[in-house]
Amino acid sequence: MGSESSAKQFAEAGADLSLVGVSKRFPGFTAIDDLTLKVPAGSFFALLGPSGCGKTTTLRLVAGLEEPTEGKILIGEKDVTDTKAYQRPVNTVFQSYALFPHMTIFENVLFGLKRRKIRDADKLATDALALVELAHVAHRKPAQLSGGQQQRVALARAVVNRPALLLLDEPLGALDLKLRRQMQLELKDIQSEVGLTFLHVTHDQEEAMTMADTVAVMNEGRIEQMGAPEELYESPKTVFVATFLGQSNLFVGTVSGSGSEVITVSASGNELRVPVERAVAHRGEVTVGIRPEKVSLHVTKPTLTASQTMIGPGHVTDASFSGVSTQYLVEVPGLGEITVFAQNMSRGDHARLGDEVYLSWDIEHAFGLADAPPPSARFVSDTDTASVAVQEREKLEAELGEF
User: Fold this and answer.
1) What does pTM read for this prediction?
2) Hey, where are the domains in the chain?
3) Using one digit for the tens of pLDDT, what is the confidence trace for 160-192?
4) What is the C-alpha separation between 111 and 100, in angstroms, rounded?
5) Contact 174, 100 (CB under 8 A)
6) pLDDT tens for each residue of 208-246
7) How far lies 24's CA from each of 50, 67, 224, in Å?
8) Beta-ladder partners of 200
9) 3-231: which CATH number, 3.40.50.1240, 3.40.50.300, 1.10.630.10, 3.50.4.10?
10) For residues 4 and 261, what is the distance between their CA atoms, to the nearest angstrom?
11) 313: preceding bond cis by omega (within 30 degrees)
């Protein structure tokens, strides 16, 4: 049976996930601070952030491995805040896979179905393996499979239970770069075919942007910004989002002019213009940002149009060739070091170390940010994600004695 026909066996729609005013406090610090969000049914939603931002604690709360200090958790509009983990329509795919090494691949996928005495368990397990294109290795042991294949087995074992919500906890972290990118596309395809609700927890920006329909960037227990990947990248609202999701050149200045379409910011004697619709603040001190790939580097002073901004002259302090592009670091008096990504359209360098250069960009690519809050010491790292997998493994091993 092909993966397309197998997907039909799992076409039951996922459920909405809602967190309403959820907080989680531990002695001495707060991990989640008044978090409210809604994950639509059938969507691929990513919680993205650095270690300590609260994303793993959020996953543990949704899975039922932790209890919130305040707030409600609803799955399919049903309040599950006080519901035990095993009673929730939720499954988790871990980075560590947590497969039983002495069982065949088929037995690993079948295990949960047999435990609950599900009818047609063998057929469901076969369909799940076909869905992830591993039916041909059903009788092998996990040690005989590659890391990518083991990850797909873990996914099949989770999907076969038809959860309303599938949690992905850094699921690709153990794979090499090429295989990780391949699995990103496969996971997205499977999610689209199956139609379940996926909640993906990750610190990998590329992974979140490649797979998710919606990304929520977390910082210090709160969501800094949420939206489609392209929206977050092109129009960040805070310094944290602008610097965590890719690279940004940031300049702090004071608004010196404001029109109906553009505001002008004076920064160390340079006039930087930002579209009004792309600026969070329109008066006082603001932060202006521009992505490195939006900046053009010129070895002579360019002639600008009314829709462009120019700064310089500056001097090239570093040039790093990376194949498709060259990264330049340019020191501009008063503005500091500015990063430029120049696509390699022709042979040879556009500029060399020490060259005097000018930088320009289209006004429409600039963005104005809200002031970033100061770092807070009250947030500490999440509970190690490995501990979540250990708890799940212990629960399965306890059940194994009855299998």
Assistant:
1) 0.80
2) 3-231, 236-369
3) 877 889 898 887 776 677 777 777 787 888 787
4) 10
5) no
6) 998 899 999 999 999 999 999 999 999 999 999 999 998
7) 18, 8, 17
8) 46, 168
9) 3.40.50.300
10) 49
11) yes
Residue in this structure with the two tokens 């929206």, named with its chain if needed: 231
DSSP 3-state of 144: helix
| DSSP for residue 138 | T
Q: What is the CA radius of gyration of the chain?
A: 25
Find where tokens 């702090």 sit: 252
First to last CA, the chain: 28
CATH no. of 236-369: 2.40.50.140
Q: Tell me the per-residue pLDDT of 62-105, one tens digit each, with 9 for 90 and over.
A: 999 999 999 999 999 899 999 999 889 898 887 677 788 999 99
Give the DSSP H/E element, type plus range, for residue 386: helix 385-400
The residues pairing with 32 across neighbouring beta strands, listed in sequence order, are: 24
Categorise residue 209: left if φ over 0, alpha if ψ from -120 to 50, beta otherwise: alpha
Question: What's the token pair of residue 278?
Answer: 């792309």
DSSP string across 152-185: HHHHHHHHTT--SEEEEESTTTTS-HHHHHHHHH
273/296 Cα distance (integer angstroms): 16
Which residue has 């900046």 as its token pair?
295
- How high does pLDDT run on average in the chain? 84
Cβ count near 181 (within 10 Å): 15
DSSP reduced 3-state for 239: helix
Contacts of 30 by beta carbon, 8 Å cutoff, 6+ apart: 23, 24, 221, 378, 379
Residue type at position 304: L
DSSP for residue 363: G
Q: Is the dihedral of CA 368, 370, 373, 379 positive or negative?
A: negative
- SS (HEC) of 79-131: ECCCCCHHHCCEEEEECCCCCCCCCCHHHHHHHHHHHCCCCCHHHHHHHHHHH
Most confident segment among 7-11, 204-208, 216-220: 216-220
